[in-house]
Amino acid sequence: MCTDCGCNNNRPHTVYNDGENIIHTPHSDPLSVEVHSQLLSQNNQQASLNRSLLEQHNITAINLMSSPGAGKTSLLERTIDELKGEYCIAVIEGDLETENDAARIRAKGVSAIQITTGNACHLDATMVNNALQQIDLEAVDLLFIENVGNLVCPASFDLGQHHNITLLSTPEGDDKPAKYPVIFRAAELMLITKCDLLPLLDDFNPQQATHYFRAVSGNRPIIQLSSKNGSGIDAWCAWLKDACSQKLTSL
Ligand SMILES: Nc1nc2c(ncn2[C@@H]2O[C@H](COP(=O)(O)OP(=O)(O)OP(=O)(O)O)[C@@H](O)[C@H]2O)c(=O)[nH]1
Ligand SMILES: [Mg+2]
Predict the structure, then answer these.
(1) Number of folded domains in the chain?
(2) 128: CA distance to ligand 1 center in Å?
(3) pTM score
(4) Mutate to test the pocket of ligand 1, among 63, 66, 72, 74 (most ligand atoms within 8 A of CB)
(5) What is the β-pairing status of strands 189-193 and 111-116?
(6) What residues are paired with 25 via a beta bridge?
(7) Ligand 2: distance of its center to the CA of 213 in Å?
(8) Which domain holds residue 177?
(9) Proportion of the chain above pLDDT 90, given as a percent
(10) Is the per-residue pLDDT at 9 higher than 90?
């Protein structure tokens, strides 16, 4: 048995640390590990350039990550309703196919660029840079990036954002932070979404979700909310305002 990850495959394989994440490549050769490492390194360089570009324009950028359907776009729609008068907002949407989410955001009067990744399961820094070229950055102070719905890969690709946020929706089950720790560990804040459904879900325990999140991320904050009935949206908007004002004072 492998002493690194416990798999039963006796072929050579590697476990390495890219500086933030432990990456297991259990059934591949060292060459593919090298290629993967170079791709991550190139991505990190582009992400740094994106971050500099955003900072030149005093933009706070938020990367939203979750499983498909956890409520990212619905939360953005609600957030735009709350904050549109105070902040100039733009959104970059990531999906494998369709302009659906960008159309939903544009219907709120906010500019949105849709990235369709084809078969890629996450956004990367080059895709985000291409989208940034299409946005009037002078006219933006709060940028949301809605990543592709996926609880694994998005966490490994820096996009140049300032804050990573992971959503956990109540119908997914309270054990997801324990089962998919990498994406929850990457989160500065966890949002428990669709809390209006809690009375109907007898097996989602917010305390249990909190316990699992704390086990992977320490004492980071959690907000319970519902984009349907508006509960917790004030706390979420207060967190965003704080993030924007901290950004301004750090520039
Ligand atoms: N009950 C309830 N349903 C919600 C809530 N937020 C979103 N939904 C529903 O969940 C479904 C998915 O919502 P989206 O906002 O499209 O989710 P998403 O994470 O953007 O989905 P992808 O972009 O496909 O990953 C829709 O049917 C929404 O109406 C909520 O707070 N409560
Ligand atoms: Mg969406």
Answers:
(1) 1
(2) 23
(3) 0.88
(4) 74
(5) unpaired
(6) 14
(7) 23
(8) 14-250
(9) 81
(10) no
Of ligand 1's atoms, which has the minimum distance to the CA of residue 66? 19
pLDDT at 7: 47
Specify the CATH number for the domain of residue 231. 3.40.50.300
Are the C-beta atoms of residues 152 and 136 closer than 8 Å to each other? no
Within a domain: 6? no
Closest by CA position to 92, among listed 55, 47, 62, 51: 62
3-state secondary structure of 47: helix
| Cβ of residue 147 lying under 6 Å from some atom of ligand 1 | no
Average pLDDT over residues 139-156: 97
205 in any annotated domain:
yes
Residues 186-232 have pLDDT tens digits of 999 999 999 999 999 999 999 999 999 999 999 999 999 999 999 99
Does the residue 1 lie in any domain? no
Quick check: 162 and 62 in contact, CB under 8 A?
yes
d(CA 208, CA 55): 38
Does 2 map to a domain? Answer: no
CA of 76 to the centre of ligand 2 (A): 9
CA dist., res. 223 & res. 225, Å (int): 6
Which tens digit of pLDDT belongs to each residue from 61-74? 999 999 999 999 99
- Mean pLDDT (whole number) for 149-157: 96
